[in-house]
Every structure is written in C-alpha cells, then in structure tokens.
Design brief:
4 strands; disordered N terminus
C-alpha cells in the first residue's frame, strides 16, 4: 500500500520523502522482529531442543527455524531448502499486512454495509436462522454447511469486496513477453491491474456505486467474481 500511495503523490519532493519514510518503517519492522521479547524467547526454546527432536509445528516456529540446524523437516526426513533473510522478511510482512489488515478491513466494511442496509441485514439473519436453527447442536455446525449453504452471506462478502477492494491495485511481474490490448509488454515488466477501476466500471456493473449483494446471486450476471 505504501508504494500505491507514493505512486499517487503528485509532489516529487513529497513522494521522495514518503519513499524514504516507507523504507524506515520497513527497517523498523525488521528491528522489531529481531528484538521482540516473544520471538527471542521462542528462539531460545528452539535452540534448546535436541537436533534429533522435532520442534512444535506452528507458523512462528516454521519461520524462525528456516535457517537453523533445528529446521523443521518434511515427512520424508529430508531437510527443506533454507530461505534467505529477505525471503523470511517478505513472508512476515505479507503475513501481517496482507493476511491481517486486508481481512480486518473487509470485516469492518461488511459490518458497515449490513448495518447501513436494514433489508440486507434482515435477509442475512433469515439465512443464518434457516441454516443454523437455535435447536441445532453446535457440534453439527460444520465447515461444509458454512461454505455451501450461505449464498446470500457469500454475496455480501463479494459485494463488499467489490466496493472496497483491498488492495485497490494488483502488481504482477511478467515472466515472459506478452501482448495486452495491442501493446507488447517485455519480459520482467510490472503490470498493474487497477481493481477499483474494474469493480466500479459502469460498462460491467449495473449501478456500480450501490451496494447490491443480489447481483452475485444470478448465474446470468456477466461478472460473478471479484478481482482480489
């Protein structure tokens, strides 16, 4: 998001300042990771585990043991190729920024839109009540029921993602030369898809700025997916 914000900045001096500040912020994150009390404590615990013993298998241990002798092994007993520090930091940054902030923002906007539209809220409650009646034991609330029997809830998630796409752009690097819209794009170029422009384009969406979850319930609708 920092790069996207810098890209929109029209003042060159301000833009340069923002890039510098972004780099400082990222470096401060690295420092925080290295000096976090929790992480340091876990590292010490890992060091104390004999090499012939497996550490607790969780996300934190997996990331912290990548470049260590106590590295978690695969089921066939072969060691996994180590990652360098830059790759580890990339995983950490993506985990916190892409895996936490995006989901948190989406949930907040879902609550906002549902509360703002009473009719949508009522339909959502009716769907939940029909799938999960009060007499249903909690043990019978399964993943399959959550995923396959809540079409209106799913439509609300998609419609919210369309209106409040996070992130609003999706940069991708081309591994080979390609042609897009009549333009030849060289290998190694960065192509940026502007999801906001796609999701709010009047040629593709009826009443694009309005919150209408029902648009995702029709199989006839030309666009039933959201760029994410």
């Amino acid at each position: 998001m920092a790069g996207y914000h810098n890209f929109l900045c029209k003042n060159k001096k301000h833009k340069t300042f923002e890039i510098i500040e972004s780099e400082k912020f990222i470096k401060s994150l690295v420092t925080w990771v290295k000096h976090s009390i929790i992480i340091q404590k876990r590292l010490q615990e890992i060091e104390n585990v004999p090499l012939d013993k497996l550490n607790k298998h969780d996300v934190l241990n997996t990331l912290l043991t990548i470049n260590k002798a106590q590295e978690l092994n695969s089921n066939n007993g072969k060691a996994i190729n180590p990652m360098n520090e830059r790759e580890i930091f990339g995983v950490l940054l993506e985990f916190f920024v892409a895996g936490v902030e995006t989901v948190l923002s989406l949930i907040c906007f879902i609550v906002y839109y549902v509360c703002k539209h009473p009719s949508v809220k009522q339909k959502l409650i009716q769907e939940f009540d029909s799938v999960f009646p009060t007499t249903l034991p909690s043990s019978e609330i399964t993943y399959e029921k959550l995923m396959n029997n809540l079409p209106y809830c799913d439509a609300i998630v998609k419609e919210t993602s369309r209106l409040k796409t996070n992130p609003p752009i999706n940069p991708r690097e081309l591994y080979e030369q390609d042609e897009i819209g009549g333009y030849t794009i060289p290998r190694g170029s960065t192509v940026v898809a502007c999801a906001d422009a796609i999701h709010l384009h009047k040629d593709y969406w009826e009443k694009p700025t309005e919150f209408i979850p029902e648009r995702f319930l029709s199989n006839d609708y030309p666009l039933s997916i959201v760029v994410a």
